[in-house]
Amino acid sequence: MSLAPMTTAVAHTLGDVYARLTGLCEALSVRVAEHGAADAGAGVSAAELVKDGAALDAFVAAETARIQDRHGVVARRHVAASRALHDYAWSVSLLMSGAWYLERRVPRIRPDDLRLDLATAEFTVTPGSDLACLADDPAAALPGVLTAPHEDALRAELRAAVADHMAPLLDAIVPVARRGSRALWGMVSDDLVSGIWYLGRVLGREDEAVRAAGRLLPSAVAPYPSGADFRHLTTADGRRHPTRTRAGCCMYYTIRPDEACATCPRTCDAERLRRLEG
């Protein structure tokens, strides 16, 4: 078999898992394009956001408009930049971590493979051919597929895949977001963990997902400044609920001060329990 069909086979494999993810995750607004299709979607790619200042300005402006439309608030530019980055990081991380969680396969999404329609906030992902999996996975026989010798190595590949995708965009957005590298990587850490947590809840396997996220980020692993750090709160009915405190800030509290995220450092455990019991 020639290399091209085998490479296409990897893309089809990834397209299938992306489609499964988008079918499961209502909050994941992603369209899956066919590999090699001429129409990769409208909008901008991460590669363009990094290289083109006008594209980055449009990225932030579109988020400013969405915040005003949804919440009636005119967000400051650095807040809109952080909110836009949060949505981007959560989506691209879940595409990669979801493939890992569901099928123990880690794709690498190149900056040109993911486009964002600024008007609709919908992403379009074009499945590529960069894939890592375990040695006993049938996909390991395909040319170019990286074979990980064990689960720890596959987790390391996932951490690297997300970091490699996000690093150039974080560097580009620092002046606009007006936040340091550690704070932005804290946000990426949170989004990587929360995507897995969210997927586990969707599947009715929250405890399993929490354990998986804890194994992926057991502690700070460069460039991620903190681990998953889950803990549990117990409600009056005796049920234990996983929670964690974000390492970075998604800046939602600046838009809705009385509705800070449940994992925000500003949200105390008493308030978290009130929401769980409400």
Which regions contain 5 or more consecutive residues with pLDDT less than 50?
1-6
Mean pLDDT: 92
| CA-based shape | globular
Distance between the termini: 59 Å
- Helical proportion, percent range: 40-55%
InterPro entries: FhuF_C
Pfam families: FhuF_C
Domain Ferric siderophore reductase C-terminal: 246-266
Protein name: (2Fe-2S)-binding protein
Question: What are its keywords?
Answer:
278 residues; alpha/beta; four-stranded mixed sheet; three-stranded mixed sheet; disordered N terminus
Account of the protein in words:
The protein is of the alpha/beta class and 278 residues long. 51% of the residues lie in helices and 11% in strands. The protein contains eight helices and nine strands. A hairpin with a 5-residue loop joins β8 and β9. The N terminus is likely disordered. InterPro entries: FhuF_C (IPR024726). It comes from Streptomyces osmaniensis.
Secondary structure topology:
Layout: H1 3-24, E1 30-32, E2 44-45, H2 46-51, H3 53-71, H4 77-103, E3 105-107, E4 114-117, E5 122-125, E6 131-134, E7 146-148, H5 151-177, H6 181-202, H7 206-216, E8 231-234, E9 240-243, H8 269-277
In brief:
This is (2Fe-2S)-binding protein. This protein is of the alpha/beta class.
